[in-house]
Amino acid sequence: MKNSIISAFEKKKFDNEPNLPTFRSGDTIKVHYKIKEGSSDKFRVQAFEGVVIRYKKGGVESSFTVRKIGANGVGVERVFPVYSPNIDKIEVLASGIVRRSRLFYLRNLSGKAARIKSRYIPRGK
């Protein structure tokens, strides 16, 4: 009973799909998201570029995790909800060839070992 009420609410509330490109684990993406500036109502857009290490599907609770290597060599991960109004746009920079959907093993790798092979995508066809 409770499950049907929640699913009916989700279907009514989130009828329209978010305007996101198709991407999957292993792809390198750039997420432009809005950040609130101080206590004012101003927002600025900041980019977060990295590899998608997880894509969790689940209706309203869908999310994806992006990992990048920061300026001082420390890995930074960020989880983005798919239905977040703070996501401005997403650009797919490269599509990677991976054999699994969760790439948590990248956390233990560094340097050249952490690279992912790129998939060739023909343009214009």
What does this structure look like?
It is globular, with a radius of gyration of 17 Å. The protein has a domain at 28-106: SH3 type barrels, CATH 2.30.30. The mean pLDDT is 85. 10% of the residues lie in helices and 36% in strands. The termini are far apart. It is mostly beta strands and 125 residues long. It has one helix at residues 2-13; strands at 28-36, 43-56, 63-69, 75-81, 87-94. It has a 5-stranded antiparallel beta sheet, with no helix packed on it.
Mind telling me the CATH class of the domain at 28-106?
A: Mainly Beta
Architecture per CATH nomenclature, i.e. the level-2 architecture of the domain at 28-106: Roll
| CATH topology label of the domain at 28-106 | SH3 type barrels
Number of helices: 1
Which structural class matches the secondary elements?
Answer: mainly beta
Describe the largest sheet: 5 strands, antiparallel
Low-pLDDT stretches are: none
Question: How is the secondary structure organized here?
Answer:
Blueprint: H1 2-13, E1 28-36, E2 43-56, E3 63-69, E4 75-81, E5 87-94
